Amino acid sequence: MHLTNEQIGISILLLRIILGVVFFAHGAQKVTGWFGGYGLASTVGAFKNYMKIPAPLAFVASFTEFIGGIFIIFGFLTRLTALGLLINMIVAIYKVHWKSGFFLSSGEPNKGNGFEYNMTLAVVLLTVILTGAGQFSIDSILRIF
After folding, report:
1. Alpha carbons 105 and 69: distance in angstroms, whole number
2. Spatial contact of 133 and 16, defined as CB atoms under 8 Å apart
3. How many whole angstroms separate alpha carbon 12 and alpha carbon 32?
4. What is the pTM for the complete model shown?
């Protein structure tokens, strides 16, 4: 089956919307405390105290998810934004999730925060970096990337 350019564009749009919503929601938890999150001060404190990530980088990571999610949804500076989010996921896997193993929920005590989810997001972000935002995007209108 051969896909038309419009079908490919719609596929990339759907991928971007879901990916963007996920990152926006996780960023909103960190920045605003929405969706059951702890807000920016608590997030920065946790990054500093538990992950040994300096406060400025905690701010960058939080706002990259929050604003980056919006940019991905609309397809604005998509490749650059996806690269920033990909770096965020690599750091999350390394600093938080790797030690818990592969599975997000293993049923074992002190396990269940594995890297499968972050790895999946990383691969989807890599796909967006490689494909770009597609024809239904601000990038396409502005002819960016």
Report:
1. 25
2. yes
3. 29
4. 0.92
The two structure tokens encoding residue 72: 């991905």
Cβ pair 83, 129 in contact under 8 A? yes
Taking every pair of C-alpha atoms in the chain, what is the biggest distance, in angstroms? 52
| Residuewise pLDDT in 10s, the chain (145 residues) | 899 999 999 999 999 999 999 999 999 999 999 999 999 999 999 999 988 999 999 999 999 999 999 999 999 999 999 999 999 999 999 998 998 888 887 666 666 688 999 999 999 999 999 999 999 999 999 998 7
DSSP structural state of residue 104 = S
* Number of DSSP helices (H) and strands (E) in the chain, helices first: 6, 0
In angstroms, rounded to a whole number, what is the distance separating the alpha carbons of residues 64 and 84? 7
